[in-house]
């Protein structure tokens, strides 16, 4: 039961063979995407933001596989097909991993800001401002870290820009010993 074809060779399970084939191929493509994302998430040469984006792709791909297999009785999810066999530890997906826009990546490069600094600011902020909406309806939220201040779109989790946190902000929101020494 649940197979695309009847156990009785003369019988028919009643499912359209072309549809079964298309759905099976879609599932295999999604599984391949998850494996590729796991390889990128485990790549030690990838930046923190690239790994975070890969983890988001893992999560999204697995969600799509779950949805596809729940809607199609002839498909079964087999998590072993989502494994990257060469990896001893399989990376897990992350739902809301932030990713840098092209603008943010360019500004970060110009300002000498690393992915690690951005990740630390988001993970351990000194202060997070409320969400603001500009005249064009775009949302933004400023996150002040000890080294850098990051502006993200809270809906999409896209990093809009990042810049060094100034001394005044460090003194106001942080307990950074360096900020007191800078006065």
What does it look like?
This protein is of the alpha+beta class. It is built from six helices and six strands, in the order H-H-E-H-H-E-E-E-E-E-H-H. The chain is elongated. The N and C termini lie far apart (74 Å).
Task: Quickly describe the structure.
The chain has 183 residues and is α+β, with helices and mostly antiparallel strands.
Shape: elongated
Counting helices, strands and paired strands, the structural category is alpha+beta
Mean pLDDT: 83
Q: What does the largest sheet look like? A: 6 strands, mixed
In DSSP terms (H or I, runs of 4 or more residues), the helix count works out at: 6
Q: Provide the β-strand percentage band.
A: 5-15%
The low-confidence parts are 176-183
Order of helices and strands: HHEHHEEEEEHH
Distance between the termini: 74 Å
Number of strands: 6
Q: Over the alpha carbons, how many angstroms does the gyration radius reach?
A: 23 Å
Helix % is 40-55%
Secondary-structure blueprint of this entry?
Blueprint: H1 17-42, H2 48-71, E1 99-100, H3 102-111, H4 115-123, E2 127-128, E3 132-133, E4 139-144, E5 148-152, E6 158-164, H5 167-173, H6 177-181
Parallel strand pairs: 1-6
Antiparallel strand pairs: 2-4, 3-4, 4-5, 5-6
Helix pairs in contact: 1-2
């Amino acid at each position: 039961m649940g197979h695309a074809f009847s156990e009785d060779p003369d019988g028919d399970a009643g499912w359209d063979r072309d549809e079964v084939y298309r759905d099976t191929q879609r599932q295999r493509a999604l599984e391949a995407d998850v494996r590729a994302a796991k390889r990128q998430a485990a790549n030690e040469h990838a930046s923190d933001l690239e790994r975070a984006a890969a983890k988001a792709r893992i999560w999204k791909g697995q969600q799509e596989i779950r949805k596809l297999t729940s809607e199609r009785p002839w498909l079964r999810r087999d998590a072993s097909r989502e494994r990257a066999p060469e990896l001893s530890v399989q990376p897990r997906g992350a739902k809301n991993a932030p990713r840098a826009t092209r603008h943010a990546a360019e500004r970060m490069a110009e300002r000498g800001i690393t992915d690690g600094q951005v990740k630390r600011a988001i993970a351990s902020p000194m202060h997070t401002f409320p969400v603001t909406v500009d005249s064009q309806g775009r949302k933004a939220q400023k996150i002040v870290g000890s080294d850098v201040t990051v502006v993200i779109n809270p809906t999409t989790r896209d990093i809009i820009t990042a810049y060094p946190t100034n001394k005044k902000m460090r003194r106001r929101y942080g307990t950074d010993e360096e900020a007191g020494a800078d006065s």
